[in-house]
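Board work, copied verbatim: Phosphatidylglycerol--prolipoprotein diacylglyceryl transferase
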Amino acid sequence: MDSRFRGNDMKDGNDNKKRIMIPSAISLGFLSIGIYPVSLVLIILISAFLFWRAGRHEFVESELLFDFILITSVGALFLGRIFDFIIRSDFYGWSISRLIFFNIYRGFDFYGAILGGIVAGAVYLRIKKVNPWHIFDFLAAPLVLAQSLSALVLFLIGQISTRQIIIPWQFRMNQFSLPIFSHSFYYFATYLAIFWILKRLATQKKHIGFFACFYLVFVPLVDLLFSIFLEKKIPSGSRLWQDIVDLLLILFGLVFWYVLTKRKLISDVKSIFGAGLLGIFRFLRIITSIEEAGKLSRALVFSPLYLLRSVVFVVKLIYSQVLLGFVDFIGVFKTKK
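↓ predict structure ↓
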């Protein structure tokens, strides 16, 4: 299980704060079904459907989309398991049998899965002579939604697998309590916000690779910020590994984001340098010209009014975008004739 959702999801049961009660497993006679594995399968199916729907909306062949899902899934599972085996070598003891029998020795590295999926998908798309960034753009929103829903499930069940609902012979519900606010809840809310932003940005024409790079920059950035402000301790072990990969993914996303915009580095450097010189010259005019100093004084005097107008504008913009985003979110699950 990915360690990004571990932390304060379980608190002392003596806490008197408001709590919610959710079972973590259901037993049907001799068969015990965990809530999280079942939820994870459903989340994967929902994400695959949204990916397929986005691709079909852009007239990409269903065969290509389904093959891509299958190949990236295999690559993700393979490298996700390998990376976890390497990072948690103390748990596996470098035993190949423990690596193979994942149903007994459980473990899966999220970033290994991301890398495996990217490599496998990129190779397949290159063979098919399709721009990988074009397909990866379809994957960004469904993937971050899957992370959000996964965090929500972990928040609700508290990562406990020993509490059960026993049916049908004797109906008994052994439940547990957990705090309303936990690390998983913050991940759920933040990832859901990123998903909402991606859907709103999708209403505008963007260059190829925009949404994939957006994901590669902001999702690792969220994880890195939460590691700094929520963990409140020096990272070590797998957490340190995740922070390093977060930084690498952010750097990778920014570099390719810039490259895919097809901008010229020399021209941008000249523009930045020119803007800096204009700022210096403006500052010199302010301190040497009475007229410029008067303009600055008026701007400072009316700055509260300008700030208030800006706040009103931002609030109206956010309100309208939230409403439109809610409509888009509902429309995500609707198929078109």
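The two ends are 39 Å apart (CA to CA).
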